[in-house]
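Quick one from the shared queue. A colleague (R.T.) flagged SDR family NAD(P)-dependent oxidoreductase as missing a structural entry in our internal table.

Convert sequence to structure tokens.
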Amino acid sequence: MAGGPGKPGGESGAARGTAGSPGARVAVVTGAARGIGELLVRGLSRRGLRVALVGLEPERMREVADSLPGPALVLPADVTDPAAMREAARRVRGEFGRVDVVVANAGVATGGPFAESDDATWRRVIEVNLIGSAATCRAFLPDLLESRGYFLQVASLAAIVSAPMMTAYCASKSGAEAFAHALRAEVGHRGVDVGVAYLSWTDTDMVRGADEDPALGRGRSKLPWPANRTYPAGPAVDRLLAGIERRAAHVYGQRWLRGMQALRPLMPTVLGTVAKREMRRLPPSPAGGPPPGLVGAGGAADERSRARPEPGRGPAPGPAPESGRESAPGTAPQPAPEG
């Protein structure tokens, strides 16, 4: 990536485990333990950026950080906790001295009929995918204003096409998209660029978990081509990395998603008509069965983190770690990656 004022990129990463060159750009990625977030961290590090990994699975993030070619900081934190995210921003500032790129990637999902959904699980999807993105931005926006940096909101095809059996996820991603568009209009004159990344069904733990859910898997099989395919994560992430380099307003993980924007006004009518037929064909949910939970390994990590006692959910206050590969002590994990 080319460097320059307010541009992602810069000097090569410093020796393993050090803070790196003061001029090297810094990227923060939430949901960095696995999936799209992990691949973004790897790609940004290869391009010479120092990276901060924010997520709910500290051991896994440490493994990722230890395998990177450049400096990395591990910060276990829950993106829905404003205090934890403010502390994470303070730690990144203390360790690296700046923030140039922030990727709001953390996300969770659940599926099934809204009438049968668990209220707490449904709300959690909104909290992580929408409120968590706003909390991430609020914590790091002062740094982005200072560096004239770039904020990328990872959205989804679900922000363009609202599908049945995915009310929480579609609502959260539509909201996150709208948040990013509004933010772009607010901060553009101050040198901060804001982008939205769109992904279709991409091969991550979240999507594999969704396919294991009977209702979601069956519903997805009824989608028309090309929306019924699962796409490899690597090429999608390469497109996101190119979008970060360009500071793009819109980034499409799969090229055909760009064309969906033109069809957007038609989607509610088309989908409403088709869904009436398809929903009648779905078998009823088992009587007395538990409501659907969060899908995938990242969803399981989120549920485990919320089952723990409240104290220690975010990065504990204290001096920035000496090593660029250390994590904040006394911290606990964060929401799953998008994709």
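Confidence is low (pLDDT under 50) at residues 1-16, 316-324, 326-338.
The domain at 26-281+293-307 is CATH 3.40.50.720 (Rossmann fold).
Added to the table.
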